[in-house]
Amino acid sequence: MRAAVLEAPGKTPTVMDFDEPDGADVVDVRLAGCNPVDLALASGAMGEPVTPSVVGKEGIGTTADGERVYFDSPPAPFGSWAQRCRVDPALTFPIPDGLDDDLAVALGIAGLAAWLPLTRHADVSDGKSVLVLGATGVVGHIAVQSAKLLGAGRVVGAGRNPDALEKARDLGADAVVRLGEGDDAAALKDEAGDGYDVVIDMVYGDPFLAALDASAVGATLITVGQGAGSTAAIPFAQLLGRTHIGHMNNFMPPEVMRAGYEELTKHAADGRIRVDTERYPLDEAARAWQAQADGPHTKIAIQIS
Length: 305
Prior knowledge:
By secondary structure, the chain is α/β, with parallel strands linked by helices. It has helices spanning 36-43, 101-106, 109-121, 138-149, 162-170, 184-190, 205-213, 236-239, 254-269, 285-293, and strands at residues 2-6, 14-17, 26-34, 53-54, 58-62, 68-72, 84-86, 92-94, 130-133, 155-159, 175-178, 196-201, 215-223, 243-246, 277-281, 299-303.
């Protein structure tokens, strides 16, 4: 079968022939997702990768009985950027009718990274104020929409890219803050009212410190990513009265991921969640890989069939 194969840590995947998986838990892949975690896994930043192996941590496939499913974390050496893939049944979820493949894959890793923090780690209902830190990427755009769906009052999106911030406003953000223009903490405080009740953070580093300074006593802050840096010197006094949680989808039980995906995709099928996507054919896997490395503001997907 044709697949995008990682031959050594840190290399760009190469499209070539790869042995087909066998067994009962195999799907024909329709569309594969691309995420920052794919690049991190391939680089060796998250442990030595299996090589050679097919890249891709998520995808949309068709089972032997014709069911269309989303799958996450296929067992090595198989990945989603291939014509066929072995899947983990515990992390394979049905897709509701009326939801296209592009949106279904966007709501997997990226969607759950927004939805699970806002539903399992925090409560944004009853008009809570929410800061989406890193609102310019796919996870941030989904987080803005999710917070509004869940009953948040004021939702503020913060990030560096002005065009992507305007997109966040179009998706429901009540206000946006452009970071890196001066005093980030002051800019976030200007939009915080009495302080943010919930912060969902995709960037960490210095922007997280600014957000912490603008949060209310009793706030919950959930860090999902580290786009602005992997460390932050957090004064203990600033954490007093606040809860800080580090989130990773796969640290949640599979049944929680399944329920979260069902909740989120139902909203999307009803037209309440939008995500911009960009498709690349499998033969252009290297170009898609580079596009992800360049930091896109859209969901990248690989068309397999």
